[in-house]
Amino acid sequence: MTEELDIAVLGQLTRDLVGSEVSVGYSEPQRGKEADLMAPERTSIAGMVPKRLREFAAGRAAVRMAALAHGDQPFPLPMGADRAPQWPDGVIGSIAHTDKACLAIVSRGKSLASIGIDLEHERSLPPAVADAISCRADRCKGHTAQQELGDRYDSVLFSAKEAAYKCQYPLSGTLIGFDAMSIRLSPEDGTFVAQFEQSVGAFDAGMTFNGRFAFCGGHVVTTAWITSAEWLAISEHGSGIAYG
After folding, report:
1. pTM for this structure?
2. Who's near 226: CB < 8 A, 6+ residues apart?
3. ∠159-165-169 over CA atoms, to 5°?
């Protein structure tokens, strides 16, 4: 039997993952409406099929909920030429969705340089897909996590890589493949460590940053973050922070 998803419970669980400096919003993709978009966002929807438009609008609704929870006024969030959200100056954030839920996280906190979130259905993946998303370092690190997570392992690994990618992209501006970053999952406490296997922008190979994951209603939600202190050490001095 498919586990029912309570989107409010998912939102609270995500708040527990991200901490007090980050606010959370959520919405249902099927309820996204073009009429609810702000004017600057309408420039991003040309050519979108109805399903994608609903997801886009629902994601922006989740962002506005998160902004209000953070004490901000709602703001427009158009999509850039690279299809990434164009966050206002001083704001960092991330959006994720499945066909059942949209999540957004937003922060103006000084201690964080970037954040990322992902949401996936909790499932095993076909062997060819599982092989494509994992790299040699994942396979070397993943034996214990695979045993503990069982059929959940592939979806958690994939989601952690997506959250980590979304976290690094605003700082590196670089598209990377699944082999550019490895993930070490720790199911006992729901944490993971993302490690660059290649140099990417200002990030050296070997640099690590942290994340968390949890399960809710047949979904896995993952979050990742890079602190301002970590980013300062990288951008001004190169290397200089913890390596795995």
Report:
1. 0.93
2. 112, 113, 114, 115, 167, 168, 171, 209
3. 155
The residue assigned the tokens 């994601």 is 59
Amino acid at 78: P
Domain count, the chain: 2
Domain that holds residue 71: 7-109
Residue 151 backbone dihedrals phi, psi, to 5 degrees? -65, -15
pLDDT tens digit string along 79-135? 998 999 999 999 999 999 999 999 999 999 899 999 999 999 998 889 999 999 999
Compute CA 89 distance to the chain's CA centroid, rounded to the nearest angstrom.
20
Q: Among 88, 110, 99, 230, which Cα is nearest to 171's?
A: 230
> Domain check: are 164 and 209 in the same one?
yes
Verify that 64 and 126 share a domain, yes or no: no
User: Is there a single domain that holds both residue 55 and residue 144?
Assistant: no
